[in-house]
Amino acid sequence: VDLWKKYKEPLARAEAQFGVPASMILAILGVETKFGGNKGGYKVIEALATLGFDYPPRAKFFRNELREFLILSKQNGINPLEAKGSYAGAMGFPQFMPSSWRRLAIDFDGDGRIDLINNPVDAIGSIANYFKANGWKAGEPVTVRAAIHGDNYDDATSTELKTTSTIAALAKAGITPRQKQLFPANTPVSGLRLQGENGGEFWIAFNNFFVITRYNRSILYAMATHQLAEEIQAAHDKKTADASTRTRAVSLLP
């Protein structure tokens, strides 16, 4: 919430331009780097070279990322021998891989340079651009808790990182939204079963939920990020309401 206050203008601008809520942008920054507090301590060139030439299962991917990193370094004036990031070569506030940086990072403060390592404003705009490029739809839901009925609901859940069903099909199988909001019967969704504090939890995930998995290919990552965004939004709203109440109280003083 403090970061939201500090970067209120670029967060509002990113939300208006790309349709991604400020709370979601902040949640990504929180999950990825503790809001910039931990950007990684591995030399990127060493991480990518090691994975590219000594990790056969994904060697092709990481060799390509090494190539992208060297091009990025030349284009952006980065010393390739000094840049640090994660063990997989992700960099900066938002932990973009080099190919994502080159393709989707943007200069959001207008200084003529894209800097995700030291510039949180560029990171804010780049996260929003990344989400929109991967199919985020402004104003659409992410996920809602579900109620279960009958005996076939488990068969209707999925672990795929995409929508695999519809609201109508899930309802027929015994999975329906808990909230009263109505969703069109043909809305693409997936049924999810997760393990919560009190046992199994059932959720209905929409397109925007799976956009989050484009950042990290994990249903648990997407749920953690979504729930953190909700907590940030609630804390921000409370702080704003409290400030408004104090202002009104002062204005009523004689």
Which range does the strand content fall in? 5-15%
Gross geometry: flat
Largest sheet report: 5 strands, antiparallel
- Strand arrangement in the largest pleated sheet: 4-6-7-3-5
Unreliable residue runs: none
Q: What distance lies between the first and last C-alpha atoms, to the nearest angstrom?
A: 33 Å
Number of strands: 7
Backbone structural class: alpha+beta
Q: DSSP helix count?
A: 10
Mean pLDDT reading: 95
Order of helices and strands: HHHEHHEHHEEHEEEHH
Radius of gyration: 21 Å
Helix content class: 40-55%
Question: How does this model look, in words?
Answer:
This protein has 254 residues and is of the alpha+beta class. Helices cover 49% and strands 12% of the residues. It contains 10 helices and 7 strands. β6 (188-196) and β7 form a beta hairpin. The longest helix is centred in the C-terminal third of the chain and has 33 residues, at 219-251. The model has no long low-confidence stretch (mean pLDDT 95).
